[in-house]
Amino acid sequence: MSYFSCVYCVLLLLSGVLGTYPPSGLDLHHITAQSYAQTRNIARPPHRTLNPSKTDSQCRSLPLDLVFIIDSSRSVRPGEFEKVKIFLADMVDTLDVGPDATRVAVVNYASTVKIEFLLKDHLNKPDMKRAITRIEPLAAGTMTGLAIKTAMNEAFTEQSGARPRSRKISKVAIIVTDGRPQDQVEEVSAAARGSGIEIYAVGVDRADMRSLQLMASIPLEDHVFYVETYGVIEKLTSKFRETLCGVDPCAMGHHCDHICVNSNASYYCKCRNGYILNTDKKTCSMKQVKAAVVQDPCKCEARLAFQRQTQSAIQQLAAKLSDVTGRVKQLESALGRA
Fold first, then answer.
1. What count of Cα atoms within 13 Å lies in the side-chain half-sphere of residue 131?
2. Using CA atoms, how far apart are residues 252 and 265, in angstroms rounded to an integer?
3. C-alpha dihedral over 240, 243, 246, 252, to 10 degrees?
4. pLDDT over 90 at 120, yes or no
5. Residue 246 and residue 47: Cα distance in Å, rounded?
């Protein structure tokens, strides 16, 4: 291989590595806080549109009260905002959506904040995805702190569909932004986390990494994400699938004698028909069936009929025997006179 060929290969390698990280002079400390860096996709991504009727295979997710907080400021072009909506729809597809499963709300923000729909509004996937298609960008400003405050005070309330704290349902916020907040996010984010909301921060393109770190829950490596363009944001779906989808405890191994039943974070055991669960709540024993003697009325009637027939036959034989005996005595008496 020639010298110039080697130099060309090295330059290609370096361009691929540098394309992984955002601009604006991100230092090594910031880089270590990123849990996911999307490499540059040179090939044109396939065109996708949001199809509300299509639902993909879902994982077994734990019940969540999940609120998406999406940036629709002027820097997010219309085509890019459509990709954000496709990302939301893909996320909905991965979750087990329902009244007793995961509930989803969307908070849209720019210089103002608009709650597109609440946790209680749409409790099935098709309705939720149709609502996502109707979301429009707000166009100006980046008031991220105000959006977080609105989500905490209005979207995560029981009146809006959040489950009571006693239910111990996880509350999760996923923030998607491509800019630098124009208001303070540190204190309001700390208050939201203090109220029990777990925050994931997704930065796109020109997003300010320091702001993402101030918003996100710890550990930062699990809660801060970055992609270089909206064109590849859909690929974060698989990352969130790993994070938000619960593992079936029965599939992880259990001690049930017969049947393991998933109950979200835990499991319980059941027995097959004909067996009962022992006091250890794991093993099964065969049911003890007591044999009950039941008199068959048909057999009783048959026995009585047989007894009556036998008695009648004995009586007839006794009568005949008495008649024969009488005749024998008459015969003996006649012979004696002779």
1. 21
2. 12
3. 120
4. yes
5. 31
